[in-house]
Design a protein that fits this description.
With 454 residues, the chain is mainly beta. The protein has one helix spanning 83-91, and strands at 20-22, 26-29, 37-44, 61-69, 72-79, 120-124, 127-131, 138-140, 147-150, 166-167, 174-179, 185-191, 197-204, 215-216, 220-225, 228-230, 242-244, 250-256, 262-267, 271-281, 284-292, 307-314, 320-324, 330-334, 346-351, 365-370, 376-380, 385-387, 391-394, 404-412, 417-424, 434-437, 447-452. The protein starts with 19 loop residues before the first strand and ends with a strand. Bound molecules: fe (ii) ion.
């Protein structure tokens, strides 16, 4: 135990530091034969005892791959070998501080902060990329999870890339942005499905903020500028990097993808970590996501309760309205991503435990929302089980929305072990169709994606 007083280093947030391979895992139920590929998940997993106060976002990225083929399952996990982690491994101890506590011995040989490569993992241009929003992606080998090195889009982009890029369903283009504490603060990018950077465009948001996610349609890219403001001057003093400043309000920039023109909408302060989707309907942009009233990035709690909200942005008269659609904790929204930028009907979320200060992933179960009827269904995991982000995999390329499976990793507190579960999306509250059992736990992580076998 690194620090018994820090919730992000205990329970199932505590790191699992062994790397390994396991074949022919025990499966309860039956794995659908259509699931041929790998579920990659990633999360923070500090390899060494942190130097100062540890924040959940600081830990070294570890990839967990569940490889499914012909109804059988294998598992492999590896750390992303970042330059920072390699330097620490050489010395056998932590050398870097983190988001809320710098606590680092100054060294000209080390970069000022660690690219932790811990937030999201995607298949892109026949590569596996581990993403961390403050820096460049790391490329990994899809089968062995060996770290190849930093990925720079053929030498064209050496800088921050959001952990939440989107795929354009029309052509496979990768749509993304990077943010920084210096003007223009945000840069929009588009890259082809072959890994080539095709477009970059600065967007002056007027305020240097933490921007975790964005959302795009065929015609627009939408950026929420929520006032979790950079304070670089805090870092040498060991103080938190981001401070919540509600006096700025939240503004929403809608960029026309053809012209680059940005239309701004302004409202009271709120924060969004994750969006579900956005689409155009009757002259409005409709944006679905999870909203918190405020954000605290200075300690062990995020200081707010994420709820399902919808924003209606009127592109003609510049008005906006926002509405709360559900009153229970919900986060880590996912949907059928073939509908990115188009009208969706269903969303899948973690379903919360409002009493847990680390409620972001210590969910009580999983939730499915029907946006057409307003109905929700819950996969209730009972007392000892909790699950992370649920992601949707279609049955096949032609199947309709919601015809497929929801994949998640759950943690059984009583047994201190994790399982990968497969739910039939259309029988969401029913028992999992398959449970893939590990002999150890997978710490609460952030995001993952399904990559079909080639
Ligand atoms: Fe995220």
């Amino acid at each position: 135990m690194f620090d018994s007083g820090n919730p992000f280093l205990n329970g199932n947030y505590a790191p699992w530091r062994e790397e390994g391979d396991a074949f022919d895992l025990e499966v309860e139920g039956e794995l659908p034969r259509e699931l041929n590929g790998a579920l990659y998940r990633i999360g923070p997993n500090p390899h060494f005892k942190p130097l100062g106060r540890y924040h959940w976002f600081d830990g070294d990225g570890m990839v967990h791959a569940f490889i499914l083929r012909d109804g059988r399952a294998a598992y492999r996990n590896r750390y992303v070998r970042t330059d920072g982690l390699k330097a620490e491994m050489k010395q056998g101890r932590a050398l870097f501080g983190g988001l809320i506590d710098k606590a680092r011995e100054p060294s000209p040989e080390l970069p000022p902060f660690k690219n932790a490569a811990n937030t999201n993992i995607i298949g892109y241009a026949n590569r596996l990329l581990a993403l961390f929003e403050a820096s460049s992606p790391h490329e990994l080998k899809p089968l062995t999870l060996e770290t190849v090195g930093l990925f720079d889009f053929g030498g064209k982009l050496n800088g921050p890339v959001t952990a939440h890029p989107k795929f354009d369903p029309r052509n496979g283009d990768l749509l993304f942005f990077g943010y920084a504490p210096f003007p223009p603060y945000v840069t929009w990018y588009r890259a082809g499905s072959d890994g080539k950077l095709l477009e970059s465009r600065p967007i002056d948001t007027g305020l240097p903020v933490m921007m975790h996610d964005f959302i795009a349609t065929d015609d627009y890219a939408i950026f929420f500028v929520c006032p979790s403001v950079f304070h670089l001057e805090n870092v040498p003093a060991g103080k938190p990097l981001f401070i919540w400043e509600p006096q700025h309000g939240t503004k929403i920039g809608v960029m026309n993808r053809k012209t680059g023109d940005v239309k701004w909408f302004q409202d009271e302060a709120f924060f969004v970590f994750h969006f579900l989707n956005a689409y155009e309907e009757n002259g409005e942009l409709i944006v679905d996501g999870c909203r918190m009233d405020s954000l605290d990035m200075t300690g062990n709690s995020f200081g707010g309760k994420p709820l399902i909200w919808r924003w209606n942005l009127n592109l003609k008269d510049g008005s906006m309205r926002q509405s709360q659609l559900h009153d229970g904790f919900a986060e880590f929204p996912r949907f059928d991503e073939r509908l990115a930028g188009r009208k969706h009907r269903y969303g899948y979320f973690t379903n919360g435990d409002t009493e847990s200060p680390q409620n972001a992933t210590a969910s009580k179960g999983l939730l499915k929302r029907d946006y057409q009827t307003g109905k929700t269904e819950v996969q209730d995991l009972g007392k000892n089980l909790a699950a992370g982000e649920p992601l949707f995999v279609p049955r096949n390329a032609k199947s309709s929305e919601d015809d497929g499976w929801v994949l998640a990793v759950w943690y059984d507190q009583a047994r201190d072990r994790s399982e990968m579960i497969v739910l039939d999306a259309q029988n969401f509250a029913g028992a999992p169709v398959a449970r893939v059992k590990l002999q150890h736990r997978v710490p609460w992580g952030f995001h993952g994606n399904w990559v079909p076998a080639q």
